[in-house]
Amino acid sequence: MDRFETRTYDVLVIGAGGAGLRAAIEAAEQGVSVAVVCKSLLGKAHTVMAEGGVAAALATTDGRDSWKVHFRDTMRGGKLLNDWRMAQLLAQEAPARVRELEAWGALFDRTSDGRILQRNFGGHQYPRLAHVGDRTGLEMIRTLQDRTVQAPRIDVLMESTVARLLTDGGRISGALAYRRESGRFLLLRTKAVVLATGGIGRAYRINSNSWEYTGDGHALAYDAGADLIGMEFVQFHPTGMVWPLSVRGILVTEGVRGEGGVLKNSRGERFMFRYVPEMFRGDFADTEEEADRWVADVIAGRKAEARRPPELLTRDVVARAIAQEVREGRGSPHGGAFLDIASRRKPEEIRKKLPSMYQQFLELADVDITREPMEVFPTTHYMMGGVKVDPETQSATVPGLFAAGEVAGGLHGANRLGGNSLSDLLVFGRRAGLGAATYARAQTGEPQVDAARVEAVTVELLAPFERKGGESPYAVQEALQDMMGTYVGIARTADDLQGALAELERLRGRANRVGVDGNRQYNPGWHTALDLRNLLTVSEAVARAALARRESRGAHTRVEYPDSDPQFGRVNVVVRREGDAMAVREEPIVPLAGDLKAILEGKD
Amino acid sequence: METVLKIFRGDGTAGAFRDYTVPLQPGMVVLDAVHWVQAHQASDLACRWNCKAGRCGSCSAEVNGKPRLMCMTRMDHFPPGEAITLAPMKAFPVLKDLVCDVSWNYGVNRRIPAFRPRPPEPDGTWRMQQDDIDRVQEFRKCIECFLCQDVCHVLRDHDRKDQFAGPRFLVRLAGLEMHPLDAASRTAHLKEEAGIGFCNITKCCTEVCPESIHITDNAIIPLKERVVDDFYDPLRRLWRRLRGTS
Predict the structure, then answer these.
(1) B106/A364 Cβ within 8 A
(2) B106 FRET partner, CA 20 to 30 A, in A4, A294, A540, B79?
(3) Cβ contacts (< 8 Å) between B56 and chain A: which residues?
(4) Digit-coded pLDDT (tens) for B102-124
(5) Do A393 and A419 fall into the same domain?
(6) B122 burial class (0-12, 13-18, 19+ CB within 10 angstroms)?
């Protein structure tokens, strides 16, 4: 195997967003050797795009907050389908993780008495998001990036893509990757792998994700035989840009609504008052007057006594409401809703609290958000579903495999609250790093890889070069994205989902026939061709899981079953590879521990 | 409506500009045009990109000779009917097409003395004032697009990469030096390793910064003053000698 660049580590972290870097830092602190492998340059992962903030019950802005309220909000936001132990750990550990970040150099906006200022966000009962303007993700990734490069035991392998995981007797033993720059193969022997690859947004045309989010970790885990759970729950963020075409899908932070922004339809109605679900009826303002009072309190820095505006309902609810307004003919000129902050806050406040949004709209859409409303429509944003993990160690169902962040499933249930992904990265990134290091240290002997398997994989990976004149991989990717948007979007029917599965078979055939030009050196066409395999796997998993869940819950809406069904509230839909087929089963959820039940019911 | 892009195709050893005709759409940015070329005419055209919203700093290139983010450069910024030229950043070795080897930057970053916080207050946390946060946020909002490095004549024309860290890392050093909690001093590093003396404040870096960071005025000049205070002020010099520090 001299043709390969070969390296050996105790722990291999795949992905260099917040979860991957936090995992690597923790594993290295445990004294094991660590590599982080990432598809882009360091510091460019999607964490950089997180705008609103990191949710942690620090209770610096509103003393009524506590981990218990955060736990309850997270569970209710997830429509009670969350792994409750993960939700508990998130709520309990997030404050320490945020403070630790501050000790590593991160800076957050302050209260008047110099403590961390927290922002309101959808689904969070109290102001809970530590933030820096609307650039929180950048602040986090730089802090973690600098900590990573200064750690002596971490190698960073930039612009390298892991194509397959390798196993030895059912345990993880390595990974085969390629260097994007040269196209050369990279054989990584490792005792443990932490998947931190993020989401699957590129399976849809209108999305807020970069080219990287092709479900790599989901597919790698699936191929290795791991269970995936909750794959039917794809979060459509309610506010993506709609116009001009070239910016469709780019995210507009929920922070706009957290800072008092309101949603209106073409008749000028604040329609969200009509969409408050039964579960949240008592928690939200009934009238514009009450909602405005809440905003006035928040702006003045007083404890809000009024109930919050319905624009701050959870993302699943707001996304569905906007889609319905547009469907029923009350949309904006380019088919969205109006998001108005201009009439609510002073121009200088808007530029101070939402600087990136101001710049983004001004430069890309010729819209001055201090003077005019924005037009917004839901955009594919986040994957709640993912690798099934143990809540304490983040280990998957395959020995030696761990997952953290978006690629892991369970924490967010049927719908994620804004701000919880950044705390997820920190809390479970750290736990995954610890879990993987502990596991790796307990392994004796060097990890062995199967040379014949490696050879076979390299042949597969190079196949697109043998098919000069074959269809363009970009055409197949676009066809897949359009199909998923049409058949597996916000509202789903059994017919559509069956149609999607049939269509996926055809697309798989096309993917097997794509050809690429040029050579192996920095060749995006080739990379796109290879990513198709992962996109097809995760798309099938989403469609099959969506077909199995015959109810509507959180981000998953079945047109034939508009209500939630208590039977389905007690199960996860689990997807696993059996031979060449995708098997789907329902698995009962572990009942909530007694004391947590009391918290959930608001009795503690 | 269509327009012609003249895109550099090649690697570090050889290459030439090739023409691609691209259909225009309202609001289109240069990166959209590059993606169109990849999807329809040259699937192996190499370019970096991620967020497509000016937030990650991946898609840096020279558009009609000016260092820019392709995702934030509108096609209607240019006169209709005139060809647009796309080249890789000149200050770094070309890997392929629009992609350069920027690894030198990561090496420079690794050598910067780490953040070292002062001890926290008795409750284990730190109190800070918003004004102090705002002041360094200007430096911390840098997206590492390296356009300032590209345009800096010390790096671009004189290739002093062995002696000068470049504007990006002077900004990073400013962010650390003016961090309200940081207790370390980096003036020796600024003088010896980062070579701050090489900068003769022509402000080219400030002009190209997509984040509008006042690199020269707010980062480099105050750092130069600190270096002068620490190394060239006679009283301080004497003090250092008495303390026995270099």
Answers:
(1) no
(2) A4
(3) 43-44, 48-49, 210
(4) 999 999 999 999 999 999 999 99
(5) yes
(6) exposed
